[in-house]
Amino acid sequence: MDMNSQDQQLDELRTLILKSQSEDLSEAETIELNRLIHLPGGAEEAARLVDQLCAFTDVGSSNSLSLEEEQSSARRDSHHTAPPAFNTAAFPEPTTERSRPVVASRPSRSQAETHSLNWTRAYWLVGLAASHLVIGSFAWSLARPAREVAPIAMQTAKVKPPQIVSMTACVWGHGGNSVPTLGKPIHQGEVLNLVEGVAELKTGDGTPNEALVRIEGPASIFIRDDGQLGLNHGTLTAKSLGFGSEQVSIITPIGLVSVDGQSYVGLVSLGDSHEVHLFSGRAFVRPLSTYGSSDVRLEEGDAVRLSTGTEMDSGVVLFEASMASFASARSNAFDPLSLDEKYVSAVLESSPDIYWRFEGLEGSYPQHVKNEGKLPELHASVVGNPGWRQYRGNRVAELGLTDAASAFTTETLWPSKPLDNYTIEAWAKPQLYHHGEMICLVDPVERREGRHDQALLLETFAREWFYALKVLGPNRIRFNHRTPPSGVVLDGTNLVSEDPYQVRVWQHVVARKSGNELSLWIDGNLAAQQEDEAPLPANMQILIGQIYPTKNYRPYVGQIDEVAFYDRALTKQEIRKHIRASGRLVDFD
Length: 589
Description:
Elements: H1 3-20, H2 27-36, H3 42-55, H4 62-78, E1 95-96, H5 109-127, H6 132-143, H7 153-156, E2 163-172, E3 191-203, E4 211-223, E5 229-240, E6 248-252, E7 255-259, E8 264-270, E9 273-280, E10 282-287, E11 296-299, E12 302-307, E13 315-320, H8 341-349, E14 354-356, E15 368-369, E16 380-384, E17 387-391, E18 394-399, E19 406-409, E20 421-430, E21 436-442, E22 454-460, E23 477-486, E24 493-496, E25 507-514, E26 517-522, E27 525-531, E28 541-544, E29 558-566, H9 572-581
Parallel strand pairs: 1-13
Antiparallel strand pairs: 2-3, 3-4, 4-5, 5-8, 6-7, 7-10, 8-9, 9-12, 10-11, 12-13, 14-29, 15-16, 16-19, 17-18, 18-29, 19-28, 20-25, 20-29, 21-22, 21-28, 22-23, 23-24, 25-26, 26-27
Helix pairs in contact: 1-2, 1-3, 2-5, 3-6, 4-6, 5-6, 8-9
């Protein structure tokens, strides 16, 4: 940079600092000031100008020192809940995933810290530029070496307790201090155990530490005395809404995760494996000394995994951040299902008894979805108020997104006789991990208090909901065949998918009985298989979206489409032909 250009930019820096004393800077001016103060000589020039400004006031230089003392005190107060010590040993050479290039060497802690602190101090300087004293303190701290300065907002902002701002299909477990409710503050020391569902909290409302945090069940968190969160286990995402360095901090089982303002991070802590994904902005991970690593700086798109297991990738692994691990990071419109007449023709060619496409409602109250299969009287009547989502030329039903019922049922019973062979087929897109009834067949005779026995369940299954079900495995799709119908949890034959189902992704699901063989198919692949010679009972009531006809209980939360019932067992080739007709890839054998 030539001298004339440098002088012009320093003049512009002085102009912006002087302007900040009489009026608020625009966003563009704020960004420009942040850039200029990082130019060679920029911080020193800012410090000199602030000294001149302070000379016109009664403020002495000792006030700058007292502010540093206050900063030190605030740093002790604001971090006293953090882990007591962090390892400062050299950062080990990380392993990599997915052939991602790894930088040969990382900056030392002092270099990394200084860069990160410098990146944000100018924002604090601008945000508090109405005070000569504050500008002086921050300009001088930027102009000379400093190890760490706590954000000034942590000293002055009034701590506000977090509160729940939204809940989707939340089930709160025992062991917490309270059951949270919308809009009610959650105070220091409280523990929240979310068994299933997604809960959104706002922390630091109206302060520079403001953040939106989404917790995905199963998870457990606690509220720190500074109003921020600690994660015991589970999954959450956090969007920092303020400005500055390390505005949001979350204590985790591996240590402290600090997130800069305007950053978006996801945390996973399950068993011995702990991950931090940075979707935007910047973050630091300060591991406990037991993990044998120094601080890890994350830039946008980075992720790090720390584990203490005996696997090959134990230790520190760097890889690419992915929203696939976080249900709440995807919108409901993610992964559109666009089906055309080619798919419809493939299904009709297989001659279903019932085929509900959900393209529209017909009739008067209660309205219904028309059956396009062989049994025209078997329409799907609306229960409550289901939602709808349009994907190009295809419309799908959206269930369970409110506390009100949203389901479908039949007035005519099916099948007309016991079946040794049958198939139930559907496209399903669960919104989150939860225990919800996608499709079930129930005895129409009410047993007690609106409860009915079930002959068949096709459901999404959560990590923990009912103690007896924990033996079946978490976050799977479950196919349960019962003859005779029963309301006992583990009665009948249970088929549970080997792998967890995907969240906010369309999956083709088939429950099939062929003679003595029961099978569950996910996306054209055999997911589970059992033997059961008992036929499917006759004259059952079909339900989609909940387990009882008149009770909004165990709702399915997500989207569903193209539901078909057959009085025979589809072949593997037919199942895969339907998937190929949808335009999705599947094996050809």
